[in-house]
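Weekly puzzle thread! Below is a chain. First person to post its structure in token form gets bragging rights.
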Amino acid sequence: MTLRLGDLLVTRGLLSPEQRDLVLDAQRTRGRPFGALAEDMFGLDPALVEAAWAEQYAGVAPRIDPLAEAIDLEALALVERRQAWQFFVLPLRFEGGELVVCTTREALPRALKFVGWRLAQAVYLVTAEHEAFVAALKQHYPAEGMAGLVREGRPGAPIVS
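Winning reply:
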């Protein structure tokens, strides 16, 4: 069973159980997302809410091996090489009216933001292990030196020696 966002925020010590229940009550009447309400009502840092959301999503998102997936060239064309590396996204194919996009658990927040503002169609995110994902990016979006700029958990961040 997947933990709900409010329960994850309680587990992380960001909300008390009473605060979680107040947000749930507000959500029933206002119809806004739990995380947005928690931020507004209790001043939670959006980055902390986002991290908890990513943990929740990663718990339900299918885990795949991107090197074993059939890749649709039309899907790949939707994302530029620089964007794929910067936002850690690998479009795989169209399935049931949605674009299936692979990322890593650590990059989920960044990938979600990217697909939300850049891609016009509905997107379904799946996740992969970091090493397999980087290998797939190298295969489908080869870019001299790009792989060296990726540090586990921090796509797009330079490696500090």
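Puzzle host: Confirmed. Bonus trivia for everyone else. The mean pLDDT is 87.
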